[in-house]
Amino acid sequence: MQNQYRNLWLWALAILFFGFGDTFTSLMVFQRGGAEGNFLMGTVLALLGQTVWAFLLIKAAAMAGIVIIARYWSRAETVVGALTLIAGVFFVAQNTVVLMSQR
Asked: Where in the chain are the domains?
């Protein structure tokens, strides 16, 4: 039971940073004339069109895919959640640095 609550907190933080934090800070970078620095995301955005809705659709699909993989591969749920959280914190920090340098 305790492990279940730990995973709940882990996933809440992963969704907060990767799902919302990265999305919010990325949109702020775009608003100030910045571009997507992630090659994969940039390529998909170029195919779909560089709009806010395309970005949100890609982020939602990525987050849903990560959660589905973690739930399907339950033995690695904690690892997948931790990696998602680490990626989210990294992307938010990277976007914050970009935002600070745009001033």
From this structure: 2-101
